[in-house]
Design a protein that fits this description.
alpha/beta, 2 domains, Rossmann fold, homodimer, Jelly Rolls
Chain lengths: 383, 383
Amino acid sequence: MNRYTAVQSLLILFAIALLISPPVIFAESIEKLDPNMAVADPDGEWIWYDALLLGIEGKVWGETEKPYDRLPAKAEGVVTDSVWKLSKHSAGMAVHFVSDAEKISAKWEVTNDNLAMPHMPATGVSGLDLYVRLDKGWHWIGNGRPSQKETQAVLASGIPAGSHEYLLYLPLYNGTASLAIGVPKEASLAKAPARPEGKQKPLVFYGTSITHGGCASRPGMAYPAILGRRFDRPVVNLGFSGNGKMEAAMGELLQEIDAAAYILDCIPNMTPELIAERVVPLVKALRAARPGIPILLVENIQYQSGAFLEASRIAYEEKNEALQESYGTLLGSEYISDLYYLPGDTLLGSDGEATVDGVHPTDLGFQRMADAFEPVLKSFLSE
Amino acid sequence: MNRYTAVQSLLILFAIALLISPPVIFAESIEKLDPNMAVADPDGEWIWYDALLLGIEGKVWGETEKPYDRLPAKAEGVVTDSVWKLSKHSAGMAVHFVSDAEKISAKWEVTNDNLAMPHMPATGVSGLDLYVRLDKGWHWIGNGRPSQKETQAVLASGIPAGSHEYLLYLPLYNGTASLAIGVPKEASLAKAPARPEGKQKPLVFYGTSITHGGCASRPGMAYPAILGRRFDRPVVNLGFSGNGKMEAAMGELLQEIDAAAYILDCIPNMTPELIAERVVPLVKALRAARPGIPILLVENIQYQSGAFLEASRIAYEEKNEALQESYGTLLGSEYISDLYYLPGDTLLGSDGEATVDGVHPTDLGFQRMADAFEPVLKSFLSE
């Protein structure tokens, strides 16, 4: 055949190769886990890799008492006992991996027998939640519904051919004692490639039960997780139910984190007096330790019965006035650069339907919170 | 004083009277419950009225085996055993009342020990949910979080002076064995006035676990309940988890209901074969029995992993094609008037985040479903 036909044929072959190649192409440098590190089921259906082999996104400190603790071992006795206990919950942690498996399972054990709360289902408190990266962004594909302390569940099957990038969120309100990811024995499993330059530092959220993820139906619907997917960045969740109180010790731990931004959403757990006492020094110390990194102060959500019950309304209005006061000080006499402020009136919408109990957002409320946070974060995060 | 001053004084007195009058003024004809029918607490804090004294909205048949059953006693052995069992759940029922109480409590007992499901919290499965009518419409103010089979809970306190109109939703996925409403002994309690002329007939929803309310965080967030509030009409919830299959016996029961509209949302529980077999005869019989009353056929929701997993996508596409076929028959050879159709692609949005498990909407999904239903219902409901 002549040169023209040869070139044409090559182009056609190339086009076919493109068509049949995996939908996502990863650099050859991705290091696949050695199957010798996996444990095979007796019947050979699954081989299991300890998730720790893949690394845990959203975990800041290596030196922890247990592998899925949110605070370092040295924090025990330094932070309050309540914060320490709650730091054992795996909120915000995720396994970020790549696999060509046709189906994916998980086997995980939680630390607490109470798999659910009366106002938050076991899927959110103790469950797993799996997302895949599609062209348009992260997309939910399956979750692990816990039935007892240790659960094995197929998260997805019938997965299209090729390698795909996944994010598997860990339980929000329970500790994760162990987690193994199961794939068919011929499938590969690898740590996901690092996120692109400029998107590797985490968004750090410090706050209350709301930040902690109460009451999402599944771990991926806590608002820090939603924002992590929208901005395609790692997230650190330092929400401590009932205990986001801006103690100096917590401020010092925040300073240790090399963050893209610090989001301080503690107001629902603080009195106006505590706000007046603690916000300014915590922000000043954080600014001194981390110059130039954006700090976002978030007002209290509007409790959903406040449109009718005055006490609910006053409860958040007084706190927000106290926070505005502190913000004024930080803009004025104690000038702090790169400081941002998110008012509470847009966080949950205006129809009163955003929570399960007036205080804790459902997935509807968390989606609305993410919508309110997104433009503010966008305004100061470098792309 | 001269006439001018007298008129002025009267006007001022009238203005003051207006200011201190209750925010909602009800006709004198509202019949308050006789306090002799109430049971007082030993400490005198609350007096308790059986909710049955107020009547149950969303309950069609008087002759039921138990007071909070959704189907009549005669349906036992006529509908399938599964439907019969599920008809014992109080989904969609609500107590519609007026009270000038400064605080409101409830004491309720459910029939099933399992207060929650792994993917739906106890607040939705077995809880109560309280709304008040404000100028702009119904507004959430409090809920009852069940802790055991029998629970007593304060639903709201610090209520502004005056009489207010309330809607108290019953548990979605549990039976209600008994329900008492508690108010302070000096407070009155009365059945709410009938809804305005033209808004008294109910919206009747027949369907699956989704219609039944799975997996709302609280009873008021099931999509039939949301639509009931938006259109300010009673709602009848005939959702039967896993069992909305359009049997002829269910069709006959539907015909007995004097409805504002029939919404048929059974497709997720039916195979394409069952759809081909049952939709046309059920709709024809309903039209013959109830001429002129709108009937809405609803397509299957899009399962949320369908953007990635082909099997999930095919599962709903095949059913929706079958329903389109039946709809075509009903528009053509078997012409049926006042028949409407709601496609499935708008029901849950397009981001894949609307459910807890790919199938069952969370409050986020139910809000989106209500948004998709609203314009369609508006198009055929007479105001």
